[in-house]
Amino acid sequence: MNSGASIIQKATAIRINDVSMEIVRLLSKLLLETEGQLSEAEYKMLKRAVGMTIGELQVNILDLIYEQYPELSDID
Question: Which of 27, 25, 18, 26 lies closest to 73, judged by CA?
Answer without folding.
Answer: 18
